[in-house]
Design goal:
The chain is 29% helix and 29% strand. The longest helix has 17 residues. By secondary structure, the chain is α+β, with helices and mostly antiparallel strands. It starts with a strand and ends in a 13-residue tail after the last strand. It has a four-stranded antiparallel sheet with strand order 2-3-1-4, with helices on one face. Strands 5-6 form a two-stranded antiparallel sheet. The protein has a single domain, classed as Alpha-Beta Plaits.
Length: 126
Protein backbone atom coordinates (compact mmCIF):
# COMPACT_ATOMS: atom_id res chain seq x y z
CA UNK A 1 0.00 0.00 0.00
CA UNK A 2 1.35 3.45 -0.81
CA UNK A 3 2.99 5.81 1.65
CA UNK A 4 3.54 9.54 1.44
CA UNK A 5 6.06 12.19 2.40
CA UNK A 6 4.11 15.29 3.37
CA UNK A 7 6.18 18.44 3.65
CA UNK A 8 5.18 21.94 4.69
CA UNK A 9 8.04 24.31 3.98
CA UNK A 10 8.90 27.96 4.36
CA UNK A 11 11.53 28.89 1.80
CA UNK A 12 13.66 31.81 3.01
CA UNK A 13 16.04 31.93 0.03
CA UNK A 14 14.44 30.67 -3.21
CA UNK A 15 17.67 30.85 -5.20
CA UNK A 16 19.61 28.71 -2.71
CA UNK A 17 16.63 26.35 -2.34
CA UNK A 18 16.86 25.45 -6.04
CA UNK A 19 19.97 23.37 -5.35
CA UNK A 20 17.93 21.07 -3.08
CA UNK A 21 14.81 21.19 -5.28
CA UNK A 22 16.79 20.15 -8.36
CA UNK A 23 18.27 17.08 -6.62
CA UNK A 24 15.37 15.67 -4.60
CA UNK A 25 13.30 14.23 -7.51
CA UNK A 26 16.16 11.97 -8.62
CA UNK A 27 16.70 10.64 -5.10
CA UNK A 28 12.98 10.05 -4.59
CA UNK A 29 12.74 8.28 -7.97
CA UNK A 30 15.57 5.88 -7.02
CA UNK A 31 13.24 4.58 -4.30
CA UNK A 32 10.24 4.24 -6.61
CA UNK A 33 8.76 7.54 -5.45
CA UNK A 34 7.27 10.44 -7.36
CA UNK A 35 6.02 13.90 -6.51
CA UNK A 36 2.24 14.24 -6.68
CA UNK A 37 2.15 17.84 -5.38
CA UNK A 38 5.03 20.25 -5.41
CA UNK A 39 4.41 23.81 -4.34
CA UNK A 40 1.23 24.56 -6.29
CA UNK A 41 -1.68 26.71 -5.16
CA UNK A 42 -3.23 25.91 -1.76
CA UNK A 43 -6.71 26.71 -0.43
CA UNK A 44 -7.36 26.41 3.30
CA UNK A 45 -10.93 25.23 3.88
CA UNK A 46 -10.67 24.89 7.67
CA UNK A 47 -8.18 25.96 10.31
CA UNK A 48 -5.43 28.54 10.14
CA UNK A 49 -4.54 29.72 6.64
CA UNK A 50 -1.81 27.57 5.08
CA UNK A 51 0.88 29.78 3.59
CA UNK A 52 3.71 27.28 3.39
CA UNK A 53 4.91 25.41 0.31
CA UNK A 54 3.25 21.97 0.28
CA UNK A 55 5.05 18.97 -1.20
CA UNK A 56 3.67 15.42 -1.34
CA UNK A 57 5.66 12.46 -2.65
CA UNK A 58 4.19 8.99 -3.10
CA UNK A 59 6.14 5.77 -2.57
CA UNK A 60 5.25 2.11 -3.12
CA UNK A 61 5.17 1.43 0.64
CA UNK A 62 6.03 2.82 4.07
CA UNK A 63 9.32 0.95 4.51
CA UNK A 64 10.64 2.12 1.13
CA UNK A 65 9.74 5.74 1.88
CA UNK A 66 11.50 5.54 5.24
CA UNK A 67 14.58 4.02 3.56
CA UNK A 68 14.58 6.91 1.10
CA UNK A 69 14.54 9.55 3.84
CA UNK A 70 17.24 7.80 5.86
CA UNK A 71 19.41 7.02 2.82
CA UNK A 72 22.84 8.59 2.44
CA UNK A 73 21.67 10.07 -0.88
CA UNK A 74 18.77 11.94 0.69
CA UNK A 75 20.61 12.93 3.85
CA UNK A 76 23.36 14.45 1.73
CA UNK A 77 20.97 16.85 -0.02
CA UNK A 78 19.33 18.04 3.21
CA UNK A 79 22.36 20.28 3.74
CA UNK A 80 21.34 22.18 0.59
CA UNK A 81 18.09 23.30 2.23
CA UNK A 82 19.13 23.62 5.87
CA UNK A 83 20.05 27.32 5.65
CA UNK A 84 17.43 28.40 3.10
CA UNK A 85 14.19 26.67 4.19
CA UNK A 86 12.37 25.40 7.28
CA UNK A 87 10.64 22.05 6.86
CA UNK A 88 7.90 20.15 8.67
CA UNK A 89 8.41 16.66 7.19
CA UNK A 90 6.28 13.61 7.95
CA UNK A 91 5.78 10.13 6.54
CA UNK A 92 2.25 8.73 6.50
CA UNK A 93 0.97 5.30 5.45
CA UNK A 94 -1.75 5.22 2.81
CA UNK A 95 -4.73 2.90 2.49
CA UNK A 96 -5.30 0.27 -0.19
CA UNK A 97 -7.40 1.47 -3.11
CA UNK A 98 -9.96 -1.29 -2.53
CA UNK A 99 -10.86 -0.45 1.07
CA UNK A 100 -12.22 2.48 3.03
CA UNK A 101 -12.12 3.43 6.67
CA UNK A 102 -15.30 2.78 8.63
CA UNK A 103 -16.13 6.16 10.24
CA UNK A 104 -18.43 4.46 12.76
CA UNK A 105 -15.66 2.32 14.24
CA UNK A 106 -14.52 3.37 17.73
CA UNK A 107 -10.88 3.79 16.73
CA UNK A 108 -11.56 5.00 13.20
CA UNK A 109 -9.03 2.42 12.01
CA UNK A 110 -11.40 -0.39 11.04
CA UNK A 111 -10.97 -1.32 7.39
CA UNK A 112 -13.93 -2.63 5.44
CA UNK A 113 -14.04 -3.90 1.85
CA UNK A 114 -15.63 -1.51 -0.62
CA UNK A 115 -18.71 -3.25 -2.00
CA UNK A 116 -19.02 -3.44 -5.76
CA UNK A 117 -21.92 -1.46 -7.19
CA UNK A 118 -24.34 -3.59 -9.16
CA UNK A 119 -26.86 -2.01 -11.54
CA UNK A 120 -30.51 -2.47 -10.61
CA UNK A 121 -33.02 -4.13 -12.93
CA UNK A 122 -33.67 -0.73 -14.57
CA UNK A 123 -29.96 -0.28 -15.20
CA UNK A 124 -29.57 2.51 -12.65
CA UNK A 125 -26.84 2.27 -10.04
CA UNK A 126 -27.91 2.74 -6.43
Amino acid sequence: MPAYFIVRAVVHDPLAYQEYASRSPQVIARFGGRHIARGGPVITFEGPEETRRIVIAQFPDFATAERCYRSDDYQSIIAHRAQCASFEFILVDGVPATVHLDPTAETGASVQPVPSVQPTASGDQP
